[in-house]
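Q: Please design a sequence for this.
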């Protein structure tokens, strides 16, 4: 049985489906979550859509977003869990950690290269630009019709994880999928303006802070922001809202990092780089994960200690990679 057939059978046989996306949700997380909701609605299935963090306001335009709940229903005996855009079970937060035993069987749909294959069925494609792109292919194979709701959700995942079709992973196929989703009623202008262009003032204040604090040494550009500073500018959530991209796109930098101290004292670290560099290894070494060009991890405080560790390990990783690149023709 192919993975697609196995997924089809598991969904057909399930009565109560729990769909979960990752904490600190981005456009791909919420687009994939609501797309799965739209597809399950078409199939007449009972489901809950769960994200163990509030939905950021800018994603309010997504279909079914009002159905997204913070935790699974305790009274519902879920017999299938579908995880979307989650590299490991920790990324589901309490939505998974607090699930009563026996756990339902798991379908794991993702595009992170560091995915731990935690599902009973795993549909993982690290080449995929987004979890939404993998869902697009799955729904295509399952003959699910791309109505406007489904198209808008998938287009949101595609647009946001590619930073508006600008990442290295974008190819002609990505654009064909986007075109098809637009034909099906997905409004690109809405997605672009809501997720890429319009920003809350707090985002620019965080950038202002980050640009004031940025340092660059040995190919690494980084900024480290304390909880006090973060709260003073009204930053909510755990993402760097583009600051890490802004830094890492500096021509002279091999890699960029942003450290954000959260109010529980943990440090959220985002890494970015451009080819031929890779930041997923350093993120994995620090207990996190992600993609070659975009990765992250969570560290224990204090901030200065986390910063020293991140800076030392990332510089070392850059140096190693430069050595390997220089000797590339010998391998
Ligand atoms: Mn994603």
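A: Design:
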């Amino acid at each position: 049985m192919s993975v697609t057939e196995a997924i089809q059978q598991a969904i057909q046989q399930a009565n109560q489906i729990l769909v979960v996306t990752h904490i600190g949700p981005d456009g791909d997380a919420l687009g994939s979550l609501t797309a799965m909701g739209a597809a399950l609605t078409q199939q007449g299935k009972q489901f809950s859509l769960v994200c163990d963090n509030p939905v950021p306001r800018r994603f309010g335009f997504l279909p079914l977003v009002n159905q997204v709940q913070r935790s699974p229903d305790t009274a519902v005996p879920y017999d299938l869990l579908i995880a979307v855009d989650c590299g490991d079970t920790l990324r589901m937060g309490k939505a998974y950690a607090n699930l009563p035993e026996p756990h339902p069987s798991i379908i794991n749909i993702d595009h992170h290269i560091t995915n731990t294959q935690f599902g009973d069925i795993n549909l993982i494609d690290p080449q995929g630009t987004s979890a939404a792109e993998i869902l697009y292919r799955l729904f295509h194979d399952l003959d699910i019709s791309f109505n406007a709701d489904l198209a808008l959700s998938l287009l949101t995942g595609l647009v946001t994880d590619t930073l508006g079709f600008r990442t290295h992973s974008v190819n002609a196929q990505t654009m064909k999928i986007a075109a098809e989703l637009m034909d099906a009623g997905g409004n690109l202008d809405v997605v672009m303006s809501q997720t890429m262009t319009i920003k809350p003032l707090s985002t620019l204040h965080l950038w202002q802070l980050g640009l004031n604090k940025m340092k660059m040494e040995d190919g690494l550009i980084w900024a480290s922001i304390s909880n006090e500073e973060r709260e003073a500018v009204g930053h909510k959530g755990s993402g760097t809202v583009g600051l890490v991209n802004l830094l890492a796109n500096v021509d002279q930098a091999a890699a960029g990092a942003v450290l954000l101290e959260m109010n529980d004292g943990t440090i959220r670290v985002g890494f970015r780089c451009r080819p031929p560099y890779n930041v997923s290894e350093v993120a994995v070494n620090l207990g996190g994960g992600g993609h070659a060009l975009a990765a992250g991890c969570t560290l224990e405080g204090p901030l200065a200690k986390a910063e020293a560790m991140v800076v030392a390990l990332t510089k070392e990783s850059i140096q190693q990679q430069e050595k390997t690149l220089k000797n590339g023709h010998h391998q």
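Q: Thanks. Anything notable?
A: The mean pLDDT is 95. Residues 28, 85, 111, 130-131, 161 surround manganese (II) ion (CB under 6 Å).
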